[in-house]
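Hi R.,

Here's the chain you asked about this morning:
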Amino acid sequence: MRLRPLLFRLSLAGLACTPWLAGCKPTQPAPAPPPTPSIIQTAEAPPPTPPSALDRAGLLQALDLAASSYASGRPTADDDFAGRRFVLRQAFGCQGPAPAATPGLAQWAWGRDHRSIEITLTPLDWSRAAIFSVADSRWEAVEGFWIARPWMRDPGCAAPPAVGALAPPSQTADSAPGAGAAPSATKFEATPQPATAAGQVAGIASVFEEGGSRVGRRDGKPFTFTLRPETAATLAAPSRGFRLVIEGRLTVFPTGRAIRCQATSLDTRPVCIVAGEVDRVAFEDADGKLLREWRPA
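And the predicted structure, written out as tokens:
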């Protein structure tokens, strides 16, 4: 029968394939590629925010610290003030017209027949004051402004004195650098303070570089504005006065500091002046309405 040879051949074929089958392994899938690292976008740090402009309170705080440091003989840490903007706003004329002209302070007076109000600010000439005339000074001109009521941080009008309050002893305004009490035999006698009015101990010096532009220099010329009524009626005295605005950028004295103080004795508060490049002077009413402004350009 032919069936047996066929079965025999199939058996041999099966034996021949057995080693091949034993050496064969199932196909393994290719390993997955390593994950591609994700690119993390690092956000760029925002540019540093410039410091805000010093307002009246900020300026007075710096001047207070400078006065205290000067009186105690310690240096002040005001080097970071250089280049910083400032905006000084202060009230004037709250109690009525000024009885007399005081350079360095904004004031108002009645015009003829009370039909106008004359507002005036005459800068002081501090160019020859000893506090500025140092050997290495690079300034050709220095025009000064007082910060009125330096004990008040608020730029508004001062409250009227309480009934029965003690009146301070009368004072006479100084008219020349170094006027007043004789300096003591201490460091306070080094240089006299700039020309002062009674009670003024804080100020802003508008400085002009030697050989620089004369734009913005007043050279004794006052800032003036005449307020007239809109109708034919006479003007009423402003119950809340007016506002003076002085803006600019702080600079430094030849010593590298923005504030310089002087005093005539150990028992008097030092007069402290901050140096700046003033680029705007303005008069406003009590509500902030602009009356007149001046800019160097």
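The chain is about 15% helix and 25% strand.

Let me know if you need anything else.
M.
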